[in-house]
Write a structure and sequence with these properties.
This protein is of the alpha+beta class and about 120 residues long. It has one helix and six strands, in the order ββββαββ. It has a two-stranded antiparallel sheet with strand order 1-4. Strands 2-3 form a two-stranded antiparallel sheet. A two-stranded antiparallel ribbon has the order 5-6. A hairpin with a 4-residue loop joins strand 5 (about 100) and strand 6 (about 105-110). The protein starts with a strand and ends in a 6-residue tail after the last strand. The relative contact order is 0.14.
């Protein structure tokens, strides 16, 4: 599960819960980009949404990831090159979910089988 650790800078009410300044939080980010109050069809990955950046995956304010634009650019370049180089590659259907890298701040498949 992808998570971030944060500390509240000031007292705040969050979803009806009062948090004092200095409260330690563990933010669970697995649903980034899938809030039904923000996104239509939240269950679909849709990078071309007009409001695609209305989530916290790269943080916000002073916690904004300085590499967010670079990460988006790298991903776009890598996907274009892969699509152009391997136009017929398709994921293989596997019976079970592949093993995952389960780090505190990052989650990804350890391998992706393709044909």
């Amino acid at each position: 599960m992808t998570t971030w650790r944060r500390v509240t800078a000031r007292p705040v009410d969050l979803a009806g819960v009062s948090l004092p300044a200095g409260a330690q939080l563990l933010l669970m980010l697995m649903g980034s980009g899938s809030d039904p109050d923000v996104f239509t069809e939240p269950e679909r990955m849709c990078p071309s949404r007009s409001n695609i950046r209305h989530h916290l995956a790269f943080g916000v304010g002073r916690h904004r990831c300085p590499g967010a634009s670079l990460a988006r650019t790298e991903a776009a370049v890598a996907l274009r090159v892969a699509a152009r180089t391997l136009p017929h590659v398709r994921p293989l259907a596997e019976g079970a979910e592949p093993p995952m890298l389960g780090l505190l701040s990052f989650r990804a498949p350890a391998r992706v089988a393709v044909a």
